[in-house]
Amino acid sequence: MTLEHYLILGAVLFCIGLLGALTRRNAVVVLFSIEIMLNAANLNFIAFWRFGENPAVLDGPLFTLFTIAVAAAEVAVGLALVIAVYRHFKTVDLEQLDTLKEK
Amino acid sequence: MTQEITFWVLAVIAVCGALLAVWRRNLIHGVFALMIFFAALAGLFLLLLAEFIAAVQILVYIGAVGVLLIFAIMLTERVTGDDGRRVTARGWLWGLAAAVAMFVFLLLPAIQKADLSQTTQPIKPSVEALGHQLMNPYVVTLEVLALLLTAALIGAVAVAQGAQEKEDEADDS
């Protein structure tokens, strides 16, 4: 297994997440997709660390730990926002949330 | 050889899980596909000998984020989720084109052009060293993260509670 395999897998997963974030209408699925993209980035951090010249320096895993913590905070606030939006508009369909759009 | 087989199996599971999570009409099935994706990534982290990160991945993503997502779906959608509405946004083909173009023109050339090292150095289990690193050079980052998580907790409760209920409480008192 080379570093290239892991990087290509990370790129594929990132693009799947991007696809979901751009094409789905449900706000919760857009949150899933963002999580998929963050995980793809984490895979790259770990792969670069493992194949790096000095794996005794633990920058890769540390950065991944911090990303995971920030992602957990992000998903908690994101879901709270989704629930607040649902309470206000009675829907989480992103295409119907067009109050700011000029009619 | 075993490592290669493990890598390919986990890679296929991860890609299929991610695709199912993105494309399933039924949101609950989507969350379970997403959990399979998280588990496959934890396996890949183990394969890269980042055992602590793999454990954190399982604890935080499968344990916390997955359950949180299921709660959000149950609070907002009918659980079946399958009522014949359109799933994709208007202009979804543009989204597909953007994702494919991103992969083909931006990420793939970058990976192919880079001069990547092909060798791995032998490493020792890293949990103890990680703990020391978190306590010595990265202690400020750790504290800032703790503050961020507290702020996110309070913020999430405040946002989800909503303005209306607060007004009701004010009326009652």
What does the model show?
The complex is a heterodimer of chains A (103) and B (173). With 103 residues, chain A is mostly helical. Helix content of chain A is 75%, strand content 0%. Chain A is built from three helices and no strands. Chain A has helices at residues 3-23, 27-51, 59-89. In chain A, helix 1 (3-23) packs antiparallel against helix 2 (27-51) and helix 2 (27-51) runs antiparallel to helix 3. The longest helix of chain A has 31 residues, at 59-89. The N and C termini of chain A lie far apart (55 Å). Chain B folds into two domains: 1-81, NADH-ubiquinone/plastoquinone oxidoreductase chain 6, subunit NuoJ (Four Helix Bundle (Hemerythrin (Met), subunit A), Up-down Bundle), CATH 1.20.120; 124-173, no CATH class. Chain B is built from seven helices and no strands. Chain B has helices at 2-23, 27-47, 51-76, 92-113, 127-135, 139-161, 163-172. The longest helix of chain B is centred in the middle third of the chain and has 26 residues, at 51-76.
Give the SSE layout.
The complex is a heterodimer of chains A (103) and B (173).
Chain A (H helix, E strand, L loop, with lengths): L2 H21 L3 H25 L7 H31 L14
Chain B lengths: L1 H22 L3 H21 L3 H26 L15 H22 L13 H9 L3 H23 L1 H10 L1
Q: Give the end-to-end Cα distance of chain B, rounded to a whole number of Å.
A: 70 Å
Categorize the overall geometry of chain A: elongated
CATH topology of the largest domain in chain B: the name is Four Helix Bundle (Hemerythrin (Met), subunit A)
Structural category of chain B is mainly alpha
Q: What order do the helices and strands of chain B follow?
A: HHHHHHH
- In terms of DSSP E residues, the strand content of chain B is under 5%
User: What does the main sheet of chain A amount to?
Assistant: none
Instruction: Note the quaternary state here.
Output: heterodimer
Instruction: Supply Rg of chain A.
Output: 17 Å
CATH classification, class level of the largest domain in chain B: Mainly Alpha
Classify the helix fraction of chain B into a percent range. Answer: over 70%
Alpha carbon gyration radius of chain B = 22 Å
Residue-averaged pLDDT of chain A: 89
Q: Indicate the CATH topology of chain A.
A: Helix Hairpins
Overall mean pLDDT of chain B stands at 85
Helical segment tally of chain B? 7
CATH class of chain A equals Mainly Alpha
Count of individual beta strands of chain A: 0
Largest interface: A-B, 73 and 86 residues
